[in-house]
């Protein structure tokens, strides 16, 4: 059977950028003999409009069966006042939770043609290629007790950072596996100096390294120093593995080393399925961009790079992923720019569709 993909384009610019990805998927079938079984369904506000909830049960079931889910973006002003339980974002959270996507991959990659775009000096970011692996399903966002309680006549807000050994083990393995396919280096970040969960994190990552991946170079860093080092000299890193909270912050920071939100892909991976492929969802980091939705201005590259990650991590097509990334690099080097990639000197921006066409060309 052909590998299967479920496309959930979602809201706002989601369907606009996903339309370009669909053309690229067809191109792979026509030109490279790489045929995918593609199905499509609704998520977010688009699903709410039809089903009264942001992800139908049938859609959830389909997502569990396919080899990879590609998601556009969800949300928008039309849905801002909905009850929390049916908000578009809940559709996304349900997918992540029920597929148990514990390993969130956020690359920070700098295309040379965009190095001027970074807020850092050009030589600090040119050629940058690092990968942040963020634990996504546990930690302080989920630990209990949590809530706002009365205590001694005032209120206290409580969240609990909590990690089990097996939760640390599986995300550590995911980082070491990645490193083997990249620069063979992992830096683990926590705050073992002040947090018990950090002490356990460091110990377990070190043990998984020693027992299973001794050939990978492992270092440890306190997360606050890590934030500093990321901005000072990011090229010292290859793969960074960290918990949910630190990963949230560090990955946003690393991402912005490289320029526009319209350029940033992500992958969320879970445990291997029966066919050996990991449960997986790929999505751009950006949202539904209501301010530019419907205008044909959105940059499709983040979504296209997310599909490149799918080629690499779900379908074992690393060479084809590289082909796609090289095409994007070429188009950018030729000076083709969507509006979000225009500097203050201006110029003529291309549309979403034109950018997609240039990449295929
Ligand atoms: P956003 O990422 O949608 O937009 C932030 C800014 O970046 C906007 O000015 C937008 O025009 C620009 N931008 C984003 N993607 C772009 C692209 N591909 N090309 C060109 N410009 C791009 O974040 P915002 O405005 O905070 O949220 C808008 C809606 O999206 C909200 O409803 C929010 O909840 C939702 N959202 C959804 C996410 C998801 O589906 N994963 C993630 C973040 C926000
Ligand atoms: Mg964040």
UniProtKB/TrEMBL annotation:
NAD(+) binds at residues 76-89, 287-299. Its main location: cytoplasm. The keyword NADP does not apply. Its cofactor is Mn(2+); Mg(2+). It comes from the Bacteria. InterPro entries: IsoCit/isopropylmalate_DH_CS, IsoPropMal-DH-like_dom, Isopropylmalate_DH. Residues 4-359 form the Isopropylmalate dehydrogenase-like domain. Binds 1 Mg(2+) or Mn(2+) ion per subunit. Pathway: Amino-acid biosynthesis; L-leucine biosynthesis; L-leucine from 3-methyl-2-oxobutanoate: step 3/4. Substrate binds at residues 96, 106, 134, 224. Mg(2+) binds at residues 224, 248, 252. It is found in: Cytoplasm. Its EC number is 1.1.1.85. Keywords: Amino-acid biosynthesis, Branched-chain amino acid biosynthesis, Cytoplasm, Leucine biosynthesis, Magnesium, Manganese, Metal-binding, NAD, Oxidoreductase. It is an enzyme of class 1 (oxidoreductase). The record marks 141, 191 as: Important for catalysis. The keyword Amino-acid biosynthesis applies. It holds the Pfam family Iso_dh. One of its GO terms (molecular function) is 3-isopropylmalate dehydrogenase activity. It catalyses: (2R,3S)-3-isopropylmalate + NAD(+) = 4-methyl-2-oxopentanoate + CO2 + NADH. Catalyzes the oxidation of 3-carboxy-2-hydroxy-4-methylpentanoate (3-isopropylmalate) to 3-carboxy-4-methyl-2-oxopentanoate. The product decarboxylates to 4-methyl-2 oxopentanoate. Belongs to the isocitrate and isopropylmalate dehydrogenases family. LeuB type 1 subfamily. Homodimer. This is 3-isopropylmalate dehydrogenase. It comes from Sedimentimonas flavescens. The gene is leuB.
């Amino acid at each position: 059977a052909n590998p299967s993909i479920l496309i959930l384009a979602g809201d706002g610019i989601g369907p606009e950028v996903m339309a370009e990805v669909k053309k690229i998927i067809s191109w792979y079938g026509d030109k490279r003999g790489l045929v995918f079984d593609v199905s499509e369904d609704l998520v977010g506000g688009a699903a709410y409009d039809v089903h009264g909830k942001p992800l139908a049960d049938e859609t959830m079931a389909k997502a569990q069966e396919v080899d990879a889910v590609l998601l556009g973006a969800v949300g928008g002003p039309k849905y801002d006042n909905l009850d929390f339980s049916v908000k578009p974002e809940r559709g996304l959270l349900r997918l992540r939770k029920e597929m148990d996507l514990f390993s969130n991959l956020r690359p920070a990659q700098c295309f040379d043609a965009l190095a001027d775009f970074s807020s850092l000096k050009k030589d600090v970011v040119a050629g940058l290629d690092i990968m942040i692996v963020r634990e996504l399903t546990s930690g302080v966002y989920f630990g209990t007790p949590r809530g706002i309680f009365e205590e001694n006549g005032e209120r206290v807000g409580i969240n609990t950072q909590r990690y089990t050994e097996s939760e640390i083990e599986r995300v550590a393995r995911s980082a070491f596996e990645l490193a083997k396919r990249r620069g063979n280096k992992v830096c683990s970040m926590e705050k073992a100096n002040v947090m018990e969960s950090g002490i356990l994190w460091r110990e377990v990552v070190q043990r998984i390294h020693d027992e299973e991946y001794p050939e990978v170079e492992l270092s440890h860093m306190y997360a606050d120093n890590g934030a500093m080092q990321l901005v000072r000299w990011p090229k010292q890193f290859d793969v960074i593995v960290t918990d949910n909270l630190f990963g949230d912050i560090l990955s946003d920071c690393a991402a912005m080393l490289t320029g526009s939100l319209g350029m940033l892909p992500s992958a969320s991976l879970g445990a291997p399925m029966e066919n050996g492929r990991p449960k997986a969802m790929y999505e751009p980091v950006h949202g539904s961009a209501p301010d530019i939705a419907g205008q044909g201005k959105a940059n499709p590259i983040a979504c296209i790079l997310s599909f490149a990650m799918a080629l690499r991590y779900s379908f074992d097509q690393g060479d084809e992923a590289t082909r796609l990334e090289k095409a994007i690099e070429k188009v950018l080097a030729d000076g083709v720019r969507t509006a979000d990639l225009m500097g203050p000197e201006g110029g003529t921006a291309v549309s979403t569709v034109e950018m997609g066409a240039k990449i295929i060309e």
